[in-house]
Amino acid sequence: MTATIDTLPDVLSPVRFHQVGKTFGTGRKSVVALDGVDLEVEPGEFVCLLGASGCGKTTLLNLVAGLDHPTAGRIELNSSRPAVVFQEAALMPWLTAAGNVELPLRMAGVPKAQRRAKAAELLELVRLAGLGDKRPHELSGGMRQRVALARALASTTDSTGDAGDKPSLLLMDEPFSALDAITRDVLQGELLRIWRATGTAILFVTHDVREAVRLGQRVVLLSSRPGRVVQQWDVEDAPDAAAVTDEINTALRKVISSHAA
Amino acid sequence: MPLDVQEGSVEAGLDALDTPVDTTEGSRVRRIAARVLPPIGAVVVLVAIWQALWAAAFWPEFKLPAPAAVWSQIWQLVTSGDIAELFWVSVHRAVIGFAISLLIAVPLGLAIANLTVVRRGIGPLVSGLQSLPSVAWVPAAILWFGLNDRAIYWVVLLGAVPSIANGLVSGLDQVPPILPRVGKALGAGRFGGIRYILLPAALPGFLGGLKQGWAFSWRSLMAAELIATSPELGEGLGQYLHNGMSLSDISMVFAGIVLIFVVGVGIELLVFRPLENTVLKARGLGPAR
Ligand SMILES: Nc1ncnc2c1ncn2[C@@H]1O[C@H](COP(=O)(O)OP(=O)(O)O)[C@@H](O)[C@H]1O
Ligand SMILES: [Mg+2]
């Protein structure tokens, strides 16, 4: 390993929003999905983004992932390519589990032997070692979502098969909401384990308050139409999880009922 | 149940419970028999009816030949070795025509599917050409190129290219939009996205187009060979059929029809069906029944 000459300051955030806005369409039919969003994720931090359906959570993640561009403000990205996990696993049905994990590496031009090794390592990380040869349709919903997570983590590596010195960032868009309760509970535990093992920063979108409180160090509540940051809670050091959950629930209900009028 | 469940064991249990199981049963021989016997039975019944009609002598012999007479025509082609030339002339033309069609149809389909202007401009034209019987091009092709292979390939191309291109377009249109989005999130560029995501995702629809393209190219070829006959062109199955008509030999005509049918269906069963089944099975999509 060569030493980098100008070492990055250790406070550089993987992602920082500066008054970000996103409007779909123009004229009278336009929809303001996001407006004046300021948000910062620290290296290694687990942030849960909470909001009602349609408040712009997916839009926000898409902006960070580079799948869409803001119409106002600016997003400062200091991470390697963000890893993205969607609500559906969306595995490529013609590839095996290992083939899916290798896909981003293949597109980045990583040599075959290195790809193999990296995919095996990531499948091990999500506890699917030995199932690399299975096709997506031979896996359960929870297993597919774990393959999707391994594949997303593979996408952060560059052509040398290594993520470089930049902090890593994992974006997750309601990844467990299509799973049954037990599987979801287990995968939440797994995600926390993987987060601790990899030290990656996570921006996790959910509409489930309990999930947000269980997983996140910080919970950010987004309002609806336009999506703005309403309030934030530091839930990691909260003495009483149940009380915080109630408080956030109340705030969320208030945001939703403000749209009834 | 002990309280301290071993780490990871709940997950392992869930995985075991949730994993879909393969429920296909029965031995391989039985499954193959169940596939093969019905069509054989159908052919036997058909030949029996034919034999009965012939024996009843509803029609004179020069209109309806005996099954045995047709068989002896075919058998004579086999023993004399002439069948090899008939097959070679026709099949190699169909294969070359199909291959050229593929080279033209794939870029065409990609352009129609990906570029709005091209889709609006020539999309309807290509669909329209698909419903125009390509045999309608035979007179023009003969006037343009003369009685030669080029005229025949022209007709075959106009039969096969629209089918293959349309198959590719509908295959691409049916790709779930989430897949290219995922591809982009995984770092696919424009060509990486086409090469690694779009094309493989469109493969099942594309194979359907290929199958249809083969049928059209075989059909067009037979029509062209039947109409455009000349010593220069060599004797293919279409010409054989034509000769049967010229000689007023109905058993030869029937033999020609049977051989054309056998080649068309044979290639579909030997090449396209296994290909399609392999691709669909790998994706957990049931094979076409
Ligand atoms: N491509 C688009 N075109 C127009 N409107 C969109 C588009 N994508 C999202 N929207 C609108 O933006 C708002 C936020 O959507 P989204 O980010 O998907 O919400 P969430 O993920 O929080 O449910 C919604 O009102 C939605 O209708
Ligand atoms: Mg959403």
TrEMBL record, chain A:
Keyword RNA-binding recorded: no
Top-rank taxon: Bacteria
All residue ranges annotated as the ABC transporter domain in the record: 15-251
Protein name: NitT/TauT family transport system ATP-binding protein
InterPro entries, alphabetized: AAA+_ATPase (IPR003593), ABC_transporter-like_ATP-bd (IPR003439), ABC_transporter-like_CS (IPR017871), ABC_transporter_ATP-bind (IPR050166), P-loop_NTPase (IPR027417)
GO molecular function, one term: ATP hydrolysis activity
Transmembrane segment boundaries: none
Record lineage: Bacteria, Bacillati, Actinomycetota, Actinomycetes, Propionibacteriales
Keywords: ATP-binding, Nucleotide-binding, Transport
TrEMBL record, chain B:
Membrane-crossing residue ranges in chain numbering: 36-59, 94-113, 125-145, 151-172, 193-210, 250-272
Pfam family, one: BPD_transp_1
Name of this protein: NitT/TauT family transport system permease protein
UniProt cross-references to InterPro entries, sorted A to Z: MetI-like, MetI-like_sf
ABC transmembrane type-1 domain location: 87-271
Example of a GO biological process term: transmembrane transport
Tree of life domain: Bacteria
